[in-house]
From TrEMBL:
SUPFAM superfamilies named in the record: Putative methyltransferase TM0872, insert domain (SSF81799), S-adenosyl-L-methionine-dependent methyltransferases (SSF53335)
Full protein name: Ribosomal RNA small subunit methyltransferase H
Lineage: Bacteria, Candidatus Uhriibacteriota
GO MF annotation terms: rRNA (cytosine-N4-)-methyltransferase activity
EC number of this enzyme: 2.1.1.199
Subcellular location as annotated: Cytoplasm
Biological process according to GO: rRNA base methylation
Function field: Specifically methylates the N4 position of cytidine in position 1402 (C1402) of 16S rRNA.
Family statement drawn from the similarity comment of this UniProt entry: Belongs to the methyltransferase superfamily. RsmH family.
Binding residues annotated for S-adenosyl-L-methionine, in chain numbering: 53, 80, 101
Presence of the UniProt keyword rRNA processing in the record: yes
GO CC terms, sorted: cytoplasm
Gene: rsmH
Length: 301
């Protein structure tokens, strides 16, 4: 199986990470493997790349794609929040560069067993993989056992959902009748709680599905995305050489804020004063890249 994921801002990432032969690089979010392959090509003939992902299917796919780089490329099923430990175990310290391309891949969105899509029926899981969180929490656990207030809070905070209160209430009412098991069960609850005139929401000029923001909020919580990101930045500082660079691509304004604040803090020198965004051409070819922001910082003593 080949990947359907189109990597974002590849040229900008390479320009700023400046991979070189003999260098050591960590790709914390393997996904379809495009960024990993570019790092491998740019660091030929002897640069090394260590990739991490929590999604076993992504790992299997990339093992085929990147087979030609055996000896220079390794992949480990691990959460990037532990990248310092994994890099040390694999003899990659000090690192010259680290890339985190956050969120999920198109392959994961298309995989109904992950439950990430509100257009396909699947289990309400939403974990990118078994190691995506420490406690095995799934989206089904949240909608079936968290309180109305807790659900409202995460929809508001991580989804910026204007109907957070209505949707949280709808979930509580629905689960009194029966457990909410599948993605389309949850979509039906949301549809029912959405005011008739708003069943197709407008986001700027775009029409978005009423379940978009709820699914986003649940996914962020289930995968503990913001906490993992904070831990990965701290971990990166421990294993990058002075002058080594950390590049992070975010897709959510709160994530970008975490990166921005960290990069303006102690131990880092921001290389990108403002985040880089994809060109109009890239957005035309890959509309999913629209909300991407790239920031890069250099490790200082
Ligand atoms: C946007 S995709 C990366 C695409 C990749 N850069 C490429 O070139 O195709 C994000 C990937 O990161 C993985 N991921 C998300 N959170 C993770 C975490 N905390 N630890 C490890 N992998 C993670 C997802 O499973 C997904 O495969």
């Amino acid at each position: 199986m080949t990947t359907s994921h189109i990597a974002v801002m590849t040229r900008e990432v390479m320009d700023l990470l400046q991979p070189r032969s003999g260098g050591r690089y960590l790709d914390g979010t393997l996904g379809g493997g495009t960024h990993a392959e570019e790092l491998l090509k740019a660091s030929a003939p002897d640069g090394r790349v260590l990739s991490l992902d929590v999604d076993l299917k992504a790992i299997e796919r990339a093992q085929t794609r990147l087979a030609a780089y055996e000896g220079r490329w390794k992949v480990v099923e691990e959460n990037f929040r532990h990248l310092d430990r994994v890099a040390t175990e694999h003899g990659m310290v000090p690192l010259d560069g680290i890339l985190l391309d956050l969120g999920f891949s198109s392959d994961e969105l298309a995989d109904p067993t992950k439950g990430l899509s509100f257009l396909k029926d699947g289990p309400l899981d939403m974990r990118f993989g078994p190691k995506a969180n420490d406690d095995g929490l799934t989206a089904a656990d949240i909608v079936n056992s968290w309180t109305e207030d807790e659900i409202e809070r995460i929809l508001r905070m991580f989804g910026e959902e204007r109907y957070a209160r209505r949707y949280a209430h709808g979930v509580i009412q629905a689960r009194r009748a029966s457990r909410i098991i599948g993605t389309l069960d949850l979509v039906a609850v949301i549809q029912k709680a959405t005011p008739g005139s708003r069943r197709t929401l407008k986001d700027g000029a775009r029409q978005i599905h009423p379940a978009t923001r709820t699914f986003q909020a649940l996914r962020i919580v289930v995968n503990d995305e913001f906490e993992s990101l904070k831990q990965a930045i701290v971990a990166s500082a421990k294993v990058l050489r002075p002058g080594g660079r950390l590049a992070i691509i975010t897709f959510h304004s709160l994530e970008d804020r975490i990166v921005k604040e960290a990069f303006h803090g102690e131990g880092w020198r921001a290389i990108t004063k403002k985040p880089l965004v994809p060109s109009d051409d890239e957005i035309r070819v890959n509309p999913r890249s629209r909300s991407a922001k790239l920031r890069v910082a250099e490790r200082v003593e």
